Amino acid sequence: MIKKLALGAFSLLCLMSLAACGQSPDVTANAKGNKIGEETIKIGVNMELSGAVAAYGTAEYNGIKLAVKEINSNGGVDGKMIELVAKDNKSEIAEASTTATNLAVQSQVTTIIGPATSGATAASSLESQKTGVPLLTPSGTQDDLTVNKDGSTKEFVFRTTFKDSFQGQVLAQFAAENMNAKKVVLYYDNSSDYAQGIVAEFKRKYKGEIVAESTFIAGDKDYKAALTRFKDLDFDAIVMPGYYTETGIITKQAREMGINKPILGPDGFSDETFVKLSDKKNATDVYFVSGYSSKVNLNDKAAAFIENYKKEYNDVPNMFAALAYDSVYMVAEASKGASDSTEVAKNLGNLKNFEGVTGVMSIDGQHNPIKSALMVRLENGAEESATPVEVKD
To answer: What residues make up the domain containing 226?
Structure first.
């Protein structure tokens, strides 16, 4: 999914230094990779375990640990146990890049799972390209994470979730066809590449009328001025690309002002903190894009995952936990028969019809999963239903 962290001038410096991320594939010319051990397969975890988006990273780390526990208890991969080397990138772009290097060079892992967020993934991807150690982000959705500026595919960067533009398509189609929303208000986080990418595609695909468009930025707390403008307009729904840290508060303020129209958002809503910030009673008639929900017909693997996760953590898994859980099993599958990290990367790129708890997926030529999406409906803060959405080109 997710977030390109805004770190002001420091972030700009990081991005300038990352210009090479978009350069030609010769970045990988000397990438030799790391050998897989005789007894263990070392998987690195580069995750946001503290800081601004720790809720995402913590859920993903829980999913990762559960998957590794299951695989090892069933004999491992090719008889080898998975060894996790987990590090906290503190929800910071520069730290994520340093962590990626440390995991590949010092810890000699053969795959890195994470980061969870797009900005941190973009920073880390250059290190994977240099070292020949594949990076698999469970939830980084920024469109260009897996491709260079010239359109070529990054050899060592993959994702388990869908792209931002895909989410924009899902929201546009669901609003127009499933909800029959002919008029919408568009209110989004202008400080986030994540939200901007979703908005751009939504505008291209939505068949109705956008009667008002306004923006907010990360860290805002008072949204009443914009909501007051919206209140007297004739519209059918509010489309609100952003993250739970802001959209939860916006939802609360909107409902308290008497705006009871449906609210539609991306996968950034998919955390219990959204419900806490909005208050349960206000998180009603709220819909968000997801790759996973317990409210659909579950395959046996998904049902077992939910049961085992509850036993392990005394909690219900969210989308981020599920995506990370699938990521481990994808890496395990790609590690079969591989002798080093470069072979793991090749196998990930050839993954077809992989059945995970988030659905059946195949990795395409740009290292994105081909999979369907869901629109989850919240009622009084709880998932009430989930509607599959097959995007039409």
So the answer is: 165-290
